[in-house]
Design the sequence.
């Protein structure tokens, strides 16, 4: 698909997403008002993702390494290559969940309402913000929510994107809170839309997602955070390498 058409497709996708969001806005606003309604907010988030993507010819195909016990909570750790990762991860999770993301998303016209309610904004340059995010994460997990954290912290600036070094935060959190890690590999979402699509646009296609088996953290100490980080990195990198070959 040539670049001008991919640029047109990206514009169509963005308008489709905005249209679905504003159609559902009264329900999203209602669901965002009380924590007891957050499960409804997740359903609406999935609806936005599903409808806008389907209209644009983008589909998500998820495979699971083993059946997941969705009655448990997890710290979900996906790799990050595309803005579509939020859509793809949302489609893969079957329990109540929230995202941790950069505090700039509070001002995003579509994601802002989620980060002012169910999701957790964090300014990684502020110790106070990081502490508040840690506290909120504990609260969400106690409420029965899984927390999605992109351990790379940002999308690779290079194309094709390479798996970047992981931050320690998600793994320390998982160990301190005794929560299992659920790794997710986004195998080729970047081929449909890399980053925001501003440079290379987007195209119709299938985004393949692989959900690995959970990795338990019980019995670990914070001194094991680096080992846990390296293990999750290895699991995701191995899956990416298998897919590319």
Sequence:
């Amino acid at each position: 698909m040539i670049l001008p058409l991919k640029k047109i497709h990206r514009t169509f996708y963005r308008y489709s997403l905005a249209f679905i969001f504003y159609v559902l806005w009264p329900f999203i606003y209602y669901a965002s008002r009380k924590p007891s309604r957050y499960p409804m907010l997740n359903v609406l988030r999935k609806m936005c993702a599903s409808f806008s993507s389907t209209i644009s010819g983008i589909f998500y195909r998820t495979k699971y390494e083993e059946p997941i016990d969705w009655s448990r909570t997890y710290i979900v750790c996906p790799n990050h290559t595309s803005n579509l990762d939020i859509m793809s991860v949302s489609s893969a999770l079957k329990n109540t969940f929230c995202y941790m993301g950069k505090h700039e998303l509070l001002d995003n016209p579509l994601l802002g309402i989620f980060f002012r309610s169910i999701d957790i904004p964090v300014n990684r340059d502020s110790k106070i913000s990081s502490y508040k995010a840690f506290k909120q994460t504990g609260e969400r997990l106690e409420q029965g929510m899984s927390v999605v954290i992109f351990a790379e912290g940002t999308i690779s600036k290079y194309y094709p994107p390479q798996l970047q070094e992981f931050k320690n935060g998600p793994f320390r959190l998982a160990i301190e809170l005794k929560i299992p890690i659920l790794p997710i590999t986004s195998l080729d979402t970047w081929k449909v839309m890399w980053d925001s699509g501003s440079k290379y646009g987007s195209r119709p296609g299938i985004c393949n997602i692989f959900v690995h088996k959970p990795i338990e953290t019980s019995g670990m100490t914070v001194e094991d955070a680096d080992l846990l980080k390296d293990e999750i990195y290895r699991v995701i990198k191995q899956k990416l390498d298998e897919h590319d070959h």
Notes: The domain at 3-244 is CATH 3.40.1130 (Glycerol-3-phosphate (1)-acyltransferase). The radius of gyration is 17 Å. Residues 171 and 229 are 6 Å apart (CA to CA).
